[in-house]
From TrEMBL:
GO molecular function, one term: (R)-citramalate synthase activity
Reaction(s) catalysed (UniProt annotation): pyruvate + acetyl-CoA + H2O = (3R)-citramalate + CoA + H(+)
A GO BP entry: isoleucine biosynthetic process
Species name: Rhodobium orientis
Protein name: Citramalate synthase
Pathway: Amino-acid biosynthesis; L-isoleucine biosynthesis; 2-oxobutanoate from pyruvate: step 1/3
UniProt entry tagged with the keyword Transferase: yes
Keywords carried by this UniProt record: Amino-acid biosynthesis, Branched-chain amino acid biosynthesis, Isoleucine biosynthesis, Transferase
Amino acid sequence: MTSQATKERLYLFDTTLRDGAQTNGIDFSLEDKIAICELLERVGVDYVEGGYPGANPTDSAFFEKKRTKKAAFTAFGMTKRAGRSVSNDPGLRLLLDAKSDAICYVAKSWDYHVKVALGTTNEENLEGIRQSVEAAVEAGKEALVDCEHFFDGYKANPDYALACAKVAYEAGARWVVLCDTNGGTLPHEVEEIVTTVIEHIPGDRLGIHAHNDTEQAVANSLAAVRAGVRQVQGTLNGLGERCGNANLTSLIPTLKLKPEYADRFEIGITDAALADLTNVSHVFDEMLNRAPDRHAPYVGASAFATKAGIHASALLKDPKTYEHVEPATVGNKRRVLVSDQAGKSNLLAELERLGIAVDKGDRRLDELLRVVKERESTGYAYEAADASFELLARRVLGEVPKFFDIKSFRVMVERRFNAIGELITVSEAVVKVEIEDRMLMSVAEGNGPVNALDIALRKDLGPYQPLIEDLELVDYKVRILNGGTGAVTRVLIESRDNGTGERWFTVGVSSNIVDASFQALVDSVVYLLIQKTRGEVRPIAATA
């Protein structure tokens, strides 16, 4: 076994916010990108590629400030246009001016595309790569070059594909990334071609960027690592255009846990971050308003599930029979004849993560476990709603102050013509709350029923009003859990304290979308009040 001191370093480059944004049906807002960036920091990747400054207002706004604390914040864009100087290329200037640590250029490395897509000569393309890399280095930024369609280009004209990679390296690029852009290359081809490239460029300056069109992206990435590359690109949950990219939620545990890689390489993912991977994967899916893939390797709900019968019997005697890694190492859990004790262990781990100290022998854990299972069976999902789970746990444990009681709420939606003949929709909400035996009623109009409820709820909370002045609802997602007229609706709300920058998620479930929304809104307010009053303000009354 290789000692820790002599292990080679592998670097993880995440392109969820750029390549992943090209997924059908995905459209990241600025708030989405900020939240996902924080999630990626939680994972511990080395690079976060945030998007393409200048391509759209969202990406431009995202690069107005540095968004990472640990990872290298990376801007993506094209190399210098043919026929223009570095100083006279607006797109290149936006990359150089972006508040990023690094620039990842996309460069044509297939001579066919140089002619057809760029309409220039092979020589001019090489010169554009060289000048772009030099400009990034001169600007004090780390330079990366994504050699687009490298493997197809290599098969068509190996000398030119290599020339593109070599000029990037010789110009000072920290990483020359070999891209399987259409996902059609097979693992044995990747390994053979990378082995040849390493004769010209050191492996510790090479990366792999694999697409998943033949379900080989993870395998191709591992093949490239075996051949010598030392940077791996991918996305959370394999997001990406067409069939997606190499899935980091599969690559990370493979590199971290499988001896062939773990004994030779070190990655910047801690054991604690690895144990958080399942939660991160599910939180990300909830942010996208997608159901998590139950059969996803490592992190799926069925990844360590075994049906009853001889498999279950063997599993109970020796978990290694059907589990290639310990589920807890990736934050997942075994699902076969789950005992109360196993359930408590998972619950205790989550409570510890939230900073809630409970003795494992506390009988209230049985009640909390029962309530969680009961609520999940009705549609609640707490993976992406930590704030709601924390409130639920504290309520069962008797630790939630009673700030106010909701007595009733009402929402009216009116569609009518206004004074100048325009057809408009007006929403009005009325919320009644009781605080210290005082009944307070607030009325508000909004641009929709949820907005009106949000404004009315936070319009007058008596002595607590100053504590919620910085509260803002920043995102709202709805999922229909079943069909028919009696459909159950789950609402996920993201809130932010503009004073501290803290964000949190709350969830509500009901057959009535307004009721589900109001549940999540109330949880959001109560969660903030708990944070604000902890050790500072004495709550009005404690729950029984």
